[in-house]
Amino acid sequence: MITFLSGGTGTPKLLRGMRTVLPDRELCIVVNTAEDLFISGNHLSPDVDTVMYLFAGILDTETWWGISGDSHISHELANRFGAGEYITIGDQDRAVHIARGALLRGGKRLTECTRLLCERMGVLATVLPMTDDEVATYVSTPEGDIHFQEYWVKYRGKLPALDIYRRCKRHPVATDEVIRALEESDAVVIGPSNPVTSISPILECEGVHSALRDQFVIAVSPFIGDRPVSGPAAELMEAWGSRPDSLGTSLLYQDLLDVFIQDVRDTIPVEGAQRFDTLMVDIDKSIELSRFILELIRK
Ligand code: GDP
Fold it and tell me: Ligand 1: which of 148, 194, 262 to mutate, most ligand atoms within 8 Å of CB?
């Protein structure tokens, strides 16, 4: 079993390749939930949904969110009637959010809701939310402090990010399922996801650091030079006081890492890093990177 730490774009791209070289049942994915929110009364868990849909074979891999070919009637009508949804939610996608919201209100843990949804979707990989506790990434901007989804989707990342922090009632605790997966896996792969908004929320969950201490950990950088492949990682790393590049990323994970992989084109060298083409422009590139990672694990 190999366990991955994942957000909703970079690591899922890698997983798309991984699942062609390893059976889904041998893959476990610990997923960031610090972007979760209730919207129009339903529960959106963007990164969990992306990973679930990927393994269910229904993910829209143009955008890396939502269900391929989904319609948007409920979103258009809800907004016409004043719902003010700033996130485009497809009809089938919304059905998942309705079900999960109802299950959560009925007292189920997020981990249980995810297991149930995965079963119903025929997902064979193990998809684990990082925690059952509520936690959200907030960005401080000149307009005030806003949820990361608002920063990225509503304002399209255009507001200056002054600071970034987590909001929670109590410090999130990793679930027993997550700790067991991290400890019992053959290796843990930190995928090329946003270090501030996707990976650090997982690492911050109580129990994760100590579970990883004796584990073989490989990370893939989401940066090439001073730019991420996509998304707001550079601005957010700076707002967080980290270098917005592979070096900054490797420093964030340094006490856990056995191997760090950076792109062959990366002009900012990280000492001791493995180099590979990490730009997953298509599934073939994801498969090549997956094979390279597996070779490093089997060495
Ligand atoms: P989010 O949850 O949608 O923000 O997505 P993630 O955090 O999982 O992934 C976003 C990160 O993926 C960004 O920082 C990108 O630089 C990185 N990324 C996206 N595609 C690739 C790729 O093909 N290669 C690498 N190395 N990183 C990528």
Answer: 194
53-91: per-residue pLDDT in tens?
999 999 999 999 999 999 999 999 999 999 999 999 999
Q: Which residues' Cβ are closer than 6 Å to ligand 1?
A: 7-11, 13, 47, 192-194, 197-198, 220-222, 228-231, 233, 278-280
Ligand 1: atom nearest CA of 263 is 26
CA of 271 to the centre of ligand 1 (A): 22
- 3 state SS for the chain: CEEEEECCCHHHHHHHHHHHHCCHHHEEEEECCCCCEEECCEEECHHHHHHHHHHHCCECCCCCCCECCCCCHHHHHHHHCCCCCCCCCCHHHHHHHHHHHHHHHCCCCHHHHHHHHHHHHCCCCEEEECECCCEEEEEEECCEEEEHHHHHHHCCCCCCCCEEEEEECCCCEECHHHHHHHHHCCEEEECCCCHHHHHHHHHHCECHHHHHCCCCEEEECCEECCEECCCCHHHHHHHCCCCCCHHHHHHHHCCCCCEEEEECCCCCCCCCCEEECCCCCCHHHHHHHHHHHHHHHHC
Low-confidence ranges of the chain (pLDDT < 50): none
Q: How high is the pLDDT of residue 76?
A: 98
- 230, 242, 274, 288: residue to mutate for ligand 1 pocket, most atoms within 8 A of CB: 230
- Please report the pLDDT score of residue 78 as a whole number: 97
pLDDT value at residue 299:
86
